[in-house]
Amino acid sequence: MIFSSEMMRLVLTAREKIDAPKKSRKRILVVDDEPDIVFTLKNVLESISFEVVTSTDVDFALKKFKAGYFDLTILDIKMPKMNGFELYVKLKAIDEEMKAIFLSALSDLQNYSVLKDDVYPKWGERHFVKKPIENNELIEEVDLVLSL
Question: pLDDT for 24-46, tens place per residue?
Fold first, then answer.
């Protein structure tokens, strides 16, 4: 079997994470109101040695979130009670250094353009991933955001 250089990079990156000591594993918080999505993301990310905390409830996620604890948050945009942008603002108030990836099954994010501008008023990078997401695409996006 012949692997592309990009595939080899993903395999090597995943291998490094698996071989990393448990105490140095990166922590990721996943918040999505769909249990199947949460389950899948958790399994994929844990398989390459991330420590993953999940929540299908924004209130629970807010209680679990601590400054400096999570290296990355993955937030669904469309959720009951509070959308992912609103949750992001609350989490960012707790930890200014927080990094985030937004997930959405929406093909058009225009409904959220006002919130999007509020969340990222002057920052250039916006990390949005459309659901459904392929495992390798998820891993690439996570690696990209964590490297920033």
Answer: 789 999 999 999 999 999 999 99
Count of structural domains within the chain = 1
Rounded Cα distance between 4 and 140, Å, is 15
Supply the CATH number for residue 120's domain.
3.40.50.2300
The predicted-structure confidence for 103-120, as pLDDT tens digits, reads as follows: 887 655 555 555 555 555
The verdict on residue 19 lying in a domain is no
